[in-house]
Write a structure and sequence with these properties.
73% of the residues lie in helices and 0% in strands. It has helices at residues 12-17, 20-44, 49-75, 87-95, 102-130, 134-161, 167-182. InterPro entries: Ferritin-like, Ferritin-like_SF, tRNA-Hydrxlase_MiaE.
Length: 193
Amino acid sequence: MLGLKLVTDPRWVNIVESNIEEILTDHAWCEQKAASNAISLITQNSEKEELVSELMIIAQEEIEHFKMVHDLIKERGLTFGRERKDSYVNELFKFMKKDGSRNDALCERLLFSAIIEARSCERFKVLSENIKDPTLAQFYRDLMISEAGHYTTFLAFARKYADNVDVEKRWQEWIAYETSIITNYGKQETIHG
C-alpha cells in the first residue's frame, strides 16, 4: 500500500482500543504538526505559486482534521493531553539530506512529508478496518482518503521541483529506510508509535 513495504499488524488496534484518549490526543497533535509543516513549506518557498496554493489547501485540511479530532475528544468526555514527542518522525528527520541546493532541500522535505502521510494513511486504513467502534471506523476511513491525497501531492511536487535529485531513486531509499525503522513501532496507542 502506498509503496510501503511493511503493513501494520492489525493487532496494534487492540493496543489502541485500550486507551482511546491517548490515540486521539496523539492523533490531534499529529494533525497540528502536519498543518505546521505545510505552513513552514509555504513560508520557505513562497515564490512557488502552485506549491503555495496546494499547500494552503493541505494546511487548512490538516487544521480542520485537528479540530475534528479535538471535537471527538470533547464529545466523548475525554481529556485533550499535552503534545507528544513523535519518535518515528524524529527518526525520519535524521534521514533527510541536509546538503545540496535549495531545490534539493525542498525535494527532500517533500519526500519526508510524503512518507509520513503514507504511513499515517496506512495506519488510518488499519484502524478503519479493525476498530470495533463504528464511529471511529468511519472517521478513520474518511481521513485515510484525505491523507492519501496529501501523500500524492507531496510526492508529485518532489518530482516537479527536482533539479539534481533522482526522485524515484531517493523515494525508494526513503521507503527502505522507513521499512527499517517501522519494525520498532506499532506497539503503542499512538498513530506512529
